[in-house]
Amino acid sequence: MNAKSLPLKPSSHLYLLFLFLGICVSSAQNNQKRPPNFVIIFADDLGYGDLGVFGHPTIKTPNLDRMAHEGQKWTNFYVGASVCTPSRAALLTGRLPVRSGMASNKQRVLFPDSKNGLPAEEITLAEQLKQVGYSTACIGKWHLGHKKQYLPTNNGFDYYFGIPYSNDMDKTGGQDYKEAANQGASAIRMEDYNVPLMRNTEIIERPADQNTITKRYSEEAISYIKKNKDTPFLVYLAHNLPHIPLFASKGFLGKSERGLYGDVVAEIDDGVGKILAALKEEGLTENTIVIFTSDNGPWLPFKTHGGSAGLLRAGKGTTWEGGMREPTIFWSPGKIKPAVITDLGSTMDLFTTFSKLGGAKIPDDRVIDGVDLSATLFEQQESPRKNMFYYRGTDLYAVRLGDYKAHFITEGAYGQFEERQEHATPILYNVNEDPSEQFDIAKEHPEAIERINALVTEHQAKLVKGKDMLAERE
Amino acid sequence: MNAKSLPLKPSSHLYLLFLFLGICVSSAQNNQKRPPNFVIIFADDLGYGDLGVFGHPTIKTPNLDRMAHEGQKWTNFYVGASVCTPSRAALLTGRLPVRSGMASNKQRVLFPDSKNGLPAEEITLAEQLKQVGYSTACIGKWHLGHKKQYLPTNNGFDYYFGIPYSNDMDKTGGQDYKEAANQGASAIRMEDYNVPLMRNTEIIERPADQNTITKRYSEEAISYIKKNKDTPFLVYLAHNLPHIPLFASKGFLGKSERGLYGDVVAEIDDGVGKILAALKEEGLTENTIVIFTSDNGPWLPFKTHGGSAGLLRAGKGTTWEGGMREPTIFWSPGKIKPAVITDLGSTMDLFTTFSKLGGAKIPDDRVIDGVDLSATLFEQQESPRKNMFYYRGTDLYAVRLGDYKAHFITEGAYGQFEERQEHATPILYNVNEDPSEQFDIAKEHPEAIERINALVTEHQAKLVKGKDMLAERE
């Protein structure tokens, strides 16, 4: 080989070599420095038993099943409340809703005529991540205040596409839902629910076309991921289904053996599959953590239009396990070790875990209920979460500590007969041995009750209840 | 190259070549001709909801979960009866136990003082396969007659290692099981159950050491597979646990968060893992079909010592779904396509499917209730099974046809209060949409009841009830 045939001088070669090495190093540094992306997929009223991998016989969820096989299936994962508004507040603030005022004994959730929303002084996960350079999107149901100052765009999200409250609100006419449900999917008219669909702070469609809404949410999430792949991002995708009224798009309608409810869950599952595929396509899988869970248990009075909590007791609205334990999957190939995790976790922990991973400081001027789950996710270490407080409105109904759960007050869900009852001696279950909460062992384990009582005393000593933000309506 | 340097003449080369080709062809023919091996792993009183992959939160079954992921998870798979003896008769004969006399309204199962067993004229799957050259082993619980003429070795099995009836029989003393269970695993004494362990027709240990029995059954299965790998084989491994009394060996005792019941299931799962590993080691995976299922639903009155039917209603002893639908997995890498199968199947179909695959003729002198599932297993075609008859003793309580199940009679399990009730108009459920059997839709679907009634008429016209083999005791 003749040196003269080279188009560049040897010194130029050296330059190119350094340039090349420089790029490699800087690219590696970027990869090291760049914090992970987060995708939170949050279903609405999906029960513990409603995914294939959580035991449903006829709801087919191949994408979520695969996600669980490749990732971590968490079987003791809780939400902060058993109804929409407080549960969402808990996830986004990392705090029990009783602290933020997003829990009330007068109104269980926000309505289209509610005056207030999430207080401005509350700090959301989106605000946390935005301050450290994340792009942030809220896609789907918000339900933390529909007035402009309460919307996602005023709570740390760069982008919002979705409905501001539940899909059964703004009912303008038509027959009762249960009657329509009895007549089949074609009797459920989206025109009867005048729910607005918003982009940022503008209403872009009213009523929202709920027949295609699940599909559009997944598409919006994918489009946001593709547009924002050059910065770290948070996508909070809060589907407004399978909360009634149930709607599915043409490709799914009438396809599931579980009926319309199964069609809806299959469409959500399909969206999950497409989101994971998009992450793969963009080469983002290893630096993205995806979590799938639900906001509360199944809405049982709606019969086959409500879901199933599987072997767990009761559902939405209650502090039984069926109300607050959710089918949860974490996924991040190469980072999160495939496993079944039976340790405790909570949606409130996402605030703490994702803030830390993202490089945001955890606020120290308030009580944060979330704990950092990253050592469990990445190294399968024991979860730092050892307890769970089950509030209904602003009353503490039950407390779990380790395997034991003590019920101080019990009460049935909406429309289901089980009167509120206070228990002088709490009912005690070992919920790992007895997940269906059937066998009271209070007499055999007074020491467990003592430890739980001590925990409650400590908890209540520090508790400052926020001003009720749900009660006032116009 | 010099021809002279060759140690053999050209003609010898040709000879070697033909020899080599001959071996290839004959080996390929052998592979083609050699029918598949079958391993049936049958748990006792394991509920529909008791495996991780069927939704249990704290029973860890990593091997069965993986088996389901690699194979087919069947979610509408039934046994022929909701208690031990008739369920086992159904599996082995491919016939409803009411036909063989292995069902009775006087005694639900066989006891140590029962006079009879499976009638000699019944043809078992083992007899079918033995006549076409299979090696056949029964390992574990038999429960089809403990007298010599009724034992496995007189019913087509070359080899038997196990207990002849349930592990809670021959109770010789000690406290009531429920009392012992309340005091914990150490209070459950295997000495209180004088159950014999047999090899072929000899008692080799009495009482059977139940602490190590699960482990020994799995080891026996592996040892039999290794010894008999040169012929096609059938291994029927019928664990006698998690039927009470519960026992687990040292490596498992006290390890599960689900308590002793979870320990027991974990040990069965461990055995499954070891059996699959042994099949891999011997290069037998592609020519072996493994099925895992259970004999009936969970024995609920034993509280945490009984299992869970998950979202299905009731358990063992009943004709509700929890009594007769079982967590079922088929596995044969490369042959069985991974899938979740929601079509109907039954343990009775193993008789027909495995007989056909093994090359044995289906008897034509009697009614066989099994159907051939192989097109579903290998090509994911629709299952030919469209219905299921739910007998309790010799009475037909319920019938499933497609999605619909009609209950003509309902009744609770042992020890659980739900009186026998005959329904002039049957209760009707869509068990795919409503797997928990909660919402009677008889009024809305008279056509489904009509079709089921026609099926019952047809069924009963052909039904010859066998002589009751369970009633007589000595």
From TrEMBL, chains A, B:
Family listed: Belongs to the sulfatase family.
Highest taxon of source: Bacteria
Residues of the Sulfatase N-terminal domain: 36-359
CDD domains: GALNS_like (cd16026)
Entry keyword Glycoprotein: yes
Gene Ontology molecular-function annotations: arylsulfatase activity; metal ion binding
Cofactors demanded by this protein: Ca(2+)
Annotated PROSITE patterns: SULFATASE_1 (PS00523), SULFATASE_2 (PS00149)
Pfam annotation, one family: Sulfatase
Organism: Pricia antarctica
The keyword Glycoprotein is assigned to this record: yes
Name listed for the protein in its UniProt record: Arylsulfatase A
Keywords on record: Calcium, Glycoprotein, Hydrolase, Metal-binding, Signal
